[in-house]
Amino acid sequence: MNIKSIDRVDKITPEDFRKHYYEPRKPVVITGISNDWIAKDKWTWDYFKSIVGDKTVGVYNNTRADANTPVNGADDYIKFGDYLDMIQKGPVALRIFLFNIFQHAPELTQDFVWPDIYAKGLLKKYPMLFVGGAGSVAHMHYDIDLSHIFHTQFVGRKRVLLLENDQSPYIYRMPFTVESAASFVNWHEQLNTTEYPALNYASGYTTILEHGDTLFMPGGYWHHMEYMDGGFAMSLRALDQSLAGKLNGLYHIVGLRGMNNILIRLAPQWWYHKKRELAQGRANKVLKLIEV
Predict the structure, then answer these.
(1) Per-residue b/e over 231-247, b at no fewer than 16 CB within 10 Å?
(2) In terms of residue numbers, what domain contains 83?
(3) Total structural domains in the chain?
(4) What whole-number distance in Å separates Cα of residue 202 and Cα of residue 142?
């Protein structure tokens, strides 16, 4: 793969952000957004445990979904406080995503500032927490609603790999899903380009997020995230400003996801192998064009 480092800035004006990143749909890490947030120092494991430790949450392991698993099906359920105890004690390959902690503790929304100066259409009812133990992995995918994301890292470090959506054929996107058939686990050390040769021609961006970093990830970007340490982050979402972008997001949520889940129910084994076969076929077509 051809990999570049994601741009990093401390501060940026709204005009420069729109010109250099938002409109060209290019990722950037803004390190200064959270400097004045109460949350930057207030949000700790112990604090979260004290306010929502009794809530039950779905947790996800590193094993990729099998033939019978619908989209976003949790692997287990556990008390949030017990989960936090587990990941603080040592490496635990379990993560939580799309946890709306703010429904249980709305006062937390007073601890940060929404980035209204950078983007319109922020979904202020849906700030989401992402938590993971050291070694846990969010496998390569893109967000199904196609929202722009402002992802702020708090505790721990996270290695991030991003690719534009137009890289889909090179990374073996499976039909009716937002998932890649290829594995990107430890991609920075070794990729399986023998089984997935088109990966050699993919282009992407990478960085390591640390405490206080805010990643702007444009809508539709593929992303693979590996927790280097136990940690948590918050994502703030903004709808695409164009009508076409909003309609595409709606299609993904209703049509694309719905069709995938129907096929999983009707013919799980056949569909599991068929969508991987189709992903390989699309990548092979791209390879033939490159080799001509």
Answers:
(1) bbbbbbbbbbeeeebbe
(2) 2-291
(3) 1
(4) 15
Report the C-alpha gap between 144 and 255 in whole angstroms.
11
Q: For residue 12, give the CATH number of its domain.
A: 2.60.120.650
Please list the pLDDT of the chain residue by residue as tens digits (292 residues). Answer: 999 999 999 999 999 999 999 999 999 999 999 999 999 999 999 999 999 999 999 888 888 877 776 555 678 899 999 999 998 887 888 898 878 899 999 999 999 999 999 999 999 988 999 999 999 999 999 999 999 999 999 999 999 999 999 999 999 999 999 999 999 999 999 999 999 999 999 999 999 999 999 999 999 999 999 999 999 999 999 998 888 888 988 889 888 889 998 999 999 999 999 999 999 999 999 999 887 6
Kindly report the pTM of this predicted structure. Answer: 0.92
